[in-house]
From TrEMBL:
Keywords: DNA-binding, Transcription, Transcription regulation. It comes from [Mycobacterium] fortunisiensis. Transmembrane segments: none annotated. Pfam families: TetR_C_24 (PF17932), TetR_N (PF00440). Residues 39-58 bind DNA. The keyword Transport does not apply. This is TetR/AcrR family transcriptional regulator. Residues 16-76 form the HTH tetR-type domain. It comes from the Bacteria. PROSITE patterns: HTH_TETR_1, HTH_TETR_2.
Amino acid sequence: MEDQPAGSSRVARRRDRRKAEIVKTATRILTDSGYGGMSLEDVAEQTDIAKATLYHYFSSKDALVAAALETLTQEVLQRLAARAEAIGKVGARERLAALVDEQIRILTETAPEVAAVFSWPRGWPDAFEEPMKDMRRRHDAVFRRVVERGVADGEFSCPDVNVALQCLHGILNQASVWLGPGLHEDDRDRLRAAIVDRALCLFVSG
C-alpha cells in the first residue's frame, strides 16, 4: 500500500479535530437543553463555524446527535475497560465492585454529561429508540459478563440475573442525584463506597 501524502494526512487530522470539536459542542448542548433544545445553528455558533460548514461534517441534526451519543458510549466503555484492566486478575465480586465504582465516578465526576444525556432522557425522537437500546445493551454487557461469571463460579447467587442487573442500573442512574454538588470529598467517598456495597447485595441471595 502506498503511503498517504503528508498534506492529505494533515487535512484528515484537521478534519477529525474539527469533527470532534463539533461533537463535543453538541454534547454540551444536549446535556444542558436536551434534544429539543439543540439546534444546528447553536452548534455552529458555539463551535465558531458557519452552519453551511457544519453540513460538511454531519448531514443533519440527527446524524450529529447520533455521533454524540455513540462517542459518549465509547468513552464510557473505554473507561470501564481501563478500570477492569487496571485491577488485573481478581474475583467476580471485586471486579464488579470496581466497575460499579467506576461507573458512579463517570456519572458524578469524570463525565456527568453521561448522566444528563442517558440517565434522564428528555424527548428523544422515535428514530433514536433502537440505537439507544443498543448502546444500553453494550453497556449492560460489561456488567452482565462479570455477574454471569460470578454466578458460574459460585461467588454470586442471585435468583434472577436480569432483575438484579435492572436494579443495578437503577441504582447507578440515581447516583448522580445522591452524589450531587456540594458534598465534601470525604463524604462523597464514603457515600460512593456505601452505594457500591449495597449494589453488590443484589447479587447475593439469602
